[in-house]
Design goal:
single chain; alpha+beta; 3-stranded antiparallel β-sheet; 13 strands
């Protein structure tokens, strides 16, 4: 699959070393110091055709979201459909989904929870953990879950990347509670969904995101991923550390350092709206 041509310029990538991963539903394999899932997507690397965000010099595609949509639709899709039926008003529905994720996932760094610099979780994995009362994640985990749930609940949604961070976007034209509104592909009404802080409302946006250095991908056409035979590597079990410190603050998203190029038509632009928070 060719990634959508978005505005990424020079990309400096820090390849994480092998993780000290001491159980979950998926089968994981370790190969070349990286962890792959049953779709042969690297969970410890965002870049490349087999990275969880498929980051390249041409753009990115959050392929990990397709593990919970289309033919792979599971608990997250069903949950999103429940929100769709319970809350017909799109603004209320978007707020309810946002609060569900914000209030049920505790922010923590991957290094504290998994013992490696980066480990992305797909939406279904995180929802199963919410059901068990113990869900932890960092910025890309929140973004993946929010974008997937919004898509399942009938909203247009996407993921945004800024240097050092990832967040979800939801299309809510006319929503007046957001601190700012964004324009994607010349279409206004895109709202920042930043759920890593307990007190953040839907539409709150960090100041460094409002500088305009944003790349975004709308999750429109779903690719039906098919599980693949495991790579020639070691089948491993992944267990989260129970001693996670659960620190809060600005997420690190340590595997990606982006230097931005000239704006393109897929760029997200800021449109001032409402009052600014934080």
């Amino acid at each position: 699959m060719k990634p959508s041509k978005i505005l990424l310029g020079l990309i400096c990538l820090i390849l994480p070393l092998a993780c000290d991963l001491p159980i979950f539903a998926e089968t994981f394999y370790q190969q070349g110091g990286e962890i792959y899932d049953s779709w042969h997507i690297s969970r410890t690397r965002s870049q490349g055709q087999d990275g969880f965000f498929q980051v390249s010099t041409e753009g990115f595609c959050p392929i990990i979201t397709f593990e919970s949509l289309g033919r792979n639709a599971g608990v997250t899709y069903r949950l999103g459909q429940e929100f769709l039926h319970r809350f017909p008003d799109p603004f209320e529905r978007a707020e309810k989904i946002y609060k569900f994720v914000r209030d049920n996932v505790r922010y923590t760094h991957d290094i504290d929870r998994f013992g490696c610099p980066e480990f992305a979780q797909n939406a279904d994995e995180l929802v199963r953990k919410i059901e068990k009362g113990k869900a932890y994640g960092d910025c890309e985990d929140y973004a993946i879950l929010l974008a997937t749930m919004y898509k399942a609940a009938g909203h247009r949604s996407g993921i945004a990347l800024i240097p050092g961070h990832a967040a979800a976007l939801v299309h809510l034209p006319g929503y007046r509670k957001a601190s700012v509104s964004f324009q994607l592909n010349y279409q206004p009404g895109w709202i920042w969904a930043e759920a890593t802080g307990r007190n953040n409302p839907l539409g709150w946006c960090p100041k460094h995101a409002m500088r305009g250095n944003i790349a975004a991908y709308e999750i429109s056409k779903i690719e039906d991923l098919t599980p693949k035979a495991g790579p020639k590597g070691e089948v491993i079990q992944i267990k989260e550390k129970e001693t996670s410190r659960g620190r809060r603050g600005v997420p690190l998203f340590s595997s990606l350092l982006i230097m931005w190029a000239i704006p393109s038509i897929s760029r997200v632009f800021i449109r001032g709206r409402g009052r600014k928070r934080g």
